Amino acid sequence: MELTETHSLPISQQRTWEALNDTEILRACIPGCESIDPDGENAYLVALSAAVGPVKARFKGRMQLTDIDAPNAYNIVFEGQGGAAGFAKGNARVMLEADGDTATKLTYTASAQVGGKLAQIGSRLVDGAARKIAGEFFKRFGAQVAGQGETETAQAGDDTAPAQPAQPDAESSDATSAESGADATKRKRSWTAWISKS
């Protein structure tokens, strides 16, 4: 299995590099990730749950960063065991390139091998699952780093601005709470109006 993709991120290259090396951010962004714990220099123990077609399993593995060229690139070498589901191992090359002062182009090329039940379900399903997991990771990662970038910009310009992003969650939870007829409709209209203003 091989994957090559490019993503554009709305923050500087240095900030992207820092985020890619922040285990808390990675844990929040990797679908099904339960833990990432340091295991020596530039190495981590990872536990995650994943579903590949009909096969669902909890994987435990190790991830090692090699050929580190901060803040431009590194290699990730990984291997994981999923019990009866089988195993996965492979590597990825991650490269960052500045796209102006406030954006970064991230390109990665990954290759992996799977064995056990995972190998039996067919490469098309495995490739599809890998692309879906990677896509979800970058969707979450982009949202995380973009949110932090906005907060940093707002704090630099105006101390009261960071309080504003909390509004959507509060109004969203209000709109989804159990209400009847007119009240729910009224709230829905106010939520729509809030979105159109922002």
TrEMBL record:
It comes from the Bacteria. This is Carbon monoxide dehydrogenase subunit G. It comes from Paraburkholderia rhynchosiae.
